[in-house]
Amino acid sequence: MKNSSPPFSKQLDALKAEGAYAVLNKATKLETEGKKIIHFEIGQPDFPTPQNITSAAISALKKGLTKYNAPLGIMPLRRRIAQGLNETKNISVSENNIAVTPSGKTAIFVAMSSILEKGDEVIHPDPGFPTYRSLIDFLSCKPKPIPLLEETGFSFDMKIFKKNFSKKTKLVILNSPSNPTGGIIKLEDLEEIREMVKKTNCWVMTDEMYSKIIYDGIKYPSFYSFKSLHHQTILVDGFSKTFSMTGWRIGYLSAPASLIEKIDYFLTHTVGCTATFTQYAVLEGLNGPQNQVKKMVKEFEKRRNFVVSELNKIKGIKCQIPQGAFYVFPNIKSFKKSSKWIANYLLEEAGVALLDGTSFGKYGEGYLRISYATSMENLKEGIDRIKKGLNNL
Ligand SMILES: Cc1ncc(COP(=O)(O)O)c(C=O)c1O
């Protein structure tokens, strides 16, 4: 009698390990062997969740708010999210446009599964957040990766964008501020995309997970500010980064009410609902004082300035100053080695865990991603190690 299992779904082959997890595993193994590793691979704030948020969750639990709630989320939170979007983007959405989800990743999965069909073409940023490409493949769609250009602060290469945009394009994915580059898509590029999209039946999904982590006092341009395109646009955001809540798992999407009605059933039959007490915690996060968020962003800005200036002092590295998120994406092309090779070398020889640019797509070749969501002390030590490691090449 054979003991092998029946076959798995072929769709599963589309899913690959995410670079950050793979590097973290390898780094952890080296640590168990006694090596001291500096971690620059992890994409989560190193600050605690603000105390008022945690207290609100505890209080909700004590009140017995431990049961199912509506699949689209609790009404006060949906209303509050809509109000926040209206205030920051000068738009007019309501709770009927909002679905709360158990993470930004769930919001992305729900959004893409709700609008894509086999064979549809999807334009996406490359380098880009790896979940986009995995889901494009998982849903049997055709990826159309568009390179981001270092010289324009990692905005799209609009010439290639235009060449790839056609009647077959079913979805355009935007991510600004971006993981992995920290770059922001320029307003004129967003306007150009708007002009292309408005003549078609194509969707835009704008992932603005880093919407609150912005530097230099700028107001970043958001595709979701284009009210006239709301019938074709889905906004994805969440609280993992803003409130340092990565382990709580809560996010949301904002979309046309007609789509939200369908997403209600999608959530009903997949996750059921997002944890009730977590939603009350986020509600407090949105209504309560914002000083913790401001403090965190200020600290990130200080670290960004330090990291960029120190990296640019290393011979062979060229690093742009990103205006959002907590990543830098230095150019290491002058070393004439693949990004994977350099990242691996720095982990094994210098004890610095970071990600190679190709973990985010083929156009990430020649770059590394460094997350500066770690202490100044670690940043100083890690950059010193990188410098020594690269000088030895
Ligand atoms: C661009 C982007 N979108 C979405 C997410 C998902 O965030 P979460 O699932 O923690 O809400 C992340 C997380 O790293 C991200 O970088």
UniProtKB/TrEMBL annotation:
Family classification: Belongs to the class-I pyridoxal-phosphate-dependent aminotransferase family.
One GO biological process term: amino acid metabolic process
Keywords per UniProt: Aminotransferase, Pyridoxal phosphate, Transferase
CDD domains in the record: AAT_like
A GO MF term: transaminase activity
Cofactor dependency: pyridoxal 5'-phosphate
PANTHER family linked: ASPARTATE AMINOTRANSFERASE
EC number(s) on file: 2.6.1.-
InterPro entries the UniProt entry points to: Aminotransferase_I/II_large, AspAT/PAT-like, NHTrfase_class1_PyrdxlP-BS, PyrdxlP-dep_Trfase, PyrdxlP-dep_Trfase_major, PyrdxlP-dep_Trfase_small
Keyword Transferase: yes
Organism in which the protein naturally occurs: Candidatus Roizmanbacteria bacterium GW2011_GWC2_37_13
Protein name from the UniProt record: Aminotransferase
Gene3D superfamilies: Aspartate Aminotransferase, domain 1, Type I PLP-dependent aspartate aminotransferase-like (Major domain)
Pfam family membership, one: Aminotran_1_2
Ranges where the Aminotransferase class I/classII large domain occurs: 36-386
